Amino acid sequence: MVDFKLRSVITMRKSSMKWLVSVVQISALLAAGASYAAAEKVYVADEEGNTVSVIDATSFKRIGSIPVGQGPHNVQVAPDGRQVWVTNNGQPAKAVHNMPKSEHGAMAGSGEIWAIDTTTDAVAAKVPVGMHPAHVVVTPDGRFAYVANGGENTVSVVDISAKRVVDTIPVGASPHGMRISSDGKQAWVANLKGGTISVIDTAVRKETLQIAVGRGPAQVGFTPDGRLGFVSLSGENRVAVIDPVSRKVISRKAVDTVPIQLYATPDSQLLLVANQGTRQNPGSTVSIIDLRSFKVVSTIKAGKGAHGVAIDRKGLHAFVTNLYEDTVSVIDILQRKVIATIPVGRLPNGVSVTP
What we know:
The protein is mainly beta. It has helices spanning 2-38, 101-106, and strands spanning 41-46, 51-56, 61-67, 75-77, 83-88, 112-117, 122-128, 133-138, 144-149, 154-159, 164-170, 175-180, 186-191, 196-201, 206-212, 217-222, 229-233, 238-243, 248-254, 259-264, 270-277, 282-290, 295-301, 306-311, 317-322, 327-332, 337-343, 348-353. The protein has one domain (47-353): YVTN repeat-like/Quinoprotein amine dehydrogenase (Methylamine Dehydrogenase, Chain H, 7 Propeller). The strands form seven sheets. The chain has a four-stranded antiparallel β-sheet with strand order 3-2-1-28, with no helix packed on it. The chain is globular. The N and C termini lie far apart (59 Å).
């Protein structure tokens, strides 16, 4: 009888210890997750600074600058927030006596994408891709990165785990901005000099269609609910709205001069469009389009050369890179006004926010 009671007590104590360990482990995981999620950051490609600026998305202050390759053009945070990928033209080549800078740069070879660890903000990987990579995007499952190679009219598909190119897809002329649909089934690529969007089937990794859209398509996008697609038409100061199912243009909206990047809010209700203008006549506005009425409902003044735009996960703030001021404007989307201006590196271009 005594042995039975003793065994019962021991069993109860073991169960209690297991329960306690489980609680501690779960609490630690939750705390780690909360800590990671709380550290929301904004990453900016400083194209002429050869750096990536890091901004604290809460205090709106620049908290770091990461040296990267030559001419970083665009950045993209992976869906899990653990890495941010940046396109560049590789390490600066060694100087060659009496060779013009433009010719020297052309000898640098293929471009690269670099991965930055968002916990340490240190470069964690470098992957060679095609010539003059413009934009990089990551599939929703985090397995592959797609890279638009503007210098050779292709898209590189990079296996993120293996850190190597596993496919090269021919597309239209001067592929530039690109995005992947929320279901991960298709990637759209804006062919800047081709007047088209290349539609890539991500299951077979092939271009299945080119959609004629207009002059100077610079960047594409989707609403998170998958209902609509878009493309900025930098050559005609308009945004084309596209049905992702029929793949037909269903509306065109006039905005300010030379629209470049665009981004839909998490609730799929609004589209923000950065209007860059030119170096001689810089644009400085962000157009807000209501996606129910397809009307421009607000125009917000940002900085000179408003170019890149990204929105935080709550849909509260938009971050806009200003090429010709070396700053980032923070827009309060509800109040529809700029609430902060952050100095960054030279010629800030692409921008991305941790999820």
